[in-house]
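Subject: for your reference before the review

Hello V.,

The reviewers asked for a structural picture of the protein, and I figured it would be easier to keep everything in one thread rather than splitting it across files. Below is the amino acid sequence we used in the manuscript, unchanged from the supplementary table.
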Amino acid sequence: MSTKAKTKTESKAKDSEDKFIKAAKAIADAVALVARREADRAKAREYDEELRARAGRDESVTALQLVTSAAEVDLAAARYEEAKRIHAHLVRTRPVSLTLAEAIRSPIAEVLGVPVLISDSMPSSPPEGHALPVAVIVQGRHATEDHEGGYISGQAVIAYFRTKLHADLDSSKIERGLEERGVRLSVGSSCTTSLDERTEVQEVDLEIRAVFPELPIIRDNTTGWVSLVGDALGHRLAEGSFVNGRQTIGARATSRVRDSKTAEGVQRTTVLVELTAWPVRGFWTLGEVGETIRKVAEGTYAGCAFSGMGRVESYKIEHLAPAPDSPSSLGADITVTFVSKRPE
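And here is what came back from the structure prediction:
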C-alpha cells in the first residue's frame, strides 16, 4: 500500500473514531445535564411546597412570592423536559456502531466466496477498487448486544454488486451456510436493481437472531452457563452415533469452572469437562469410541462460541482411557478455555 493510500485510510479510521468519541461525550454531557435539571426541579418543588405550607400563618409571605415560586417550578420542569429531549435525541441519532456487520462479515465472505465490505448506508454504486462481484453488508440501525449471552442481534442487508452475467444469490444457500457457521438468522426478501447496461445490485434482507463477535462481551461467565459446555459434547456424541435409527454410543458429561482470570481487559475462563462414553450393543470398540470423542470434541469446541461463556480459545483432551469403575466405558477429561471481555 502506498504512503498516500495508507494515510488516507488512517485518516478515515481516525475520523470514524473521533465521531464515536464526540457522540459519547455529548451523551455523557446530556446525562449530566438531565441530572442537574432534575435536582433543580426537585429543589424548586420543595421550596414551593414549603412556602405554601407557611403562607397561611406567616404574614411576610407575599402573593408575588407565591406566583414567582409557582413560575420557578414550571420553569424548572420545562428545563428538565428539554434536557431529557436533548438526551433522547443524541442517543437516537448517535453513529451506528457496525458490530453486527463486523460479526457476520467473515461467515458471509466464506458463504459467498467474494470480497465483503461493510457500511452504515446503502451504496449507490459498486465499491471502487474491487472487481465484480463484490458484496457490501449494510447495517443502518443499531444492533442489540446481549451481555448475558454475549451475542448480537439485529437487521442487515447484503448488497451484492455483479455483472448481469453472474447468477443471483440463493437465499436458502445463504441461510444454510450461515447457520452452519454458527449464525442464527432468517433470510427475508430479495430484490434486484439494474444500475447500468452491464451492472446490477441484488439486495437481500437478513434478520440476525444471534451471532457472536470475535471477542464476546459478557457480564458474568461463571454462573448458570457452564453446564452447557459439557452438555454440548455429550449430546453431540450421543445424537451423532445413530445408525439405522439406533443409538450406538452412550454418553454423559459434567462440567465445572477450573479457573477464571482477567488480564488487560480480556477474561479467560477454563472449564473442565468430565465425559464418560460407552459403546451400545457392542457396535463400536473402545478405540473407535475414543476416535469419535476426538472428532466430536473438535467440532464442538474448536473456534466455537458458547452463550454466557465466550469464544473457545483452546481445548485439550488431557486424559482419555478406560474408566476405572467401568472398563467397558471410556473416561475423558477435557479442558476448554474461553475468552470474553466485560462490558465497559
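For the response letter, the relevant points are probably these. Residues 99-211 form a domain with the STM4215-like fold (CATH 3.30.2000). The chain has three domains: 3-92, 99-211, 227-340.

Happy to draft the paragraph if you're swamped.

O.
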